[in-house]
Amino acid sequence: MSNVKPANERQVKRINFRLDQTEYTKLKLSAETYGLTVSNYAKKLALNSKLQQPYFDHTATKELLLELSRQGTNLNQVARQLNQQPEMPQTAQLLAALQATREEYRKLWQQLQK
Question: Could you give the CA distance from residue 84 to residue 82 in angstroms, rounded to a whole number?
């Protein structure tokens, strides 16, 4: 009986990646726990991982980040104007609203960068 696999079952693609010593040691210990080689363990992890579909595609995310950046610039310009005119009666309220808006932008920015 021959040990040769049919052409469609041969593993012909190779993937290399680098680890530091700590990462390699952790991966090796995990592989040994399951009685696998480091390569087979990494392969099983990669093939069995549950990746989530991004909410936005890459192009849409880039466009959203660009728009957020533009709006953030506009907010900073408004803040600068408000800070230069502290004698206006609504300045304190406007600055508070501006700060709340900045915080919302920061949260949205962080979510989009995940």
Answer: 5
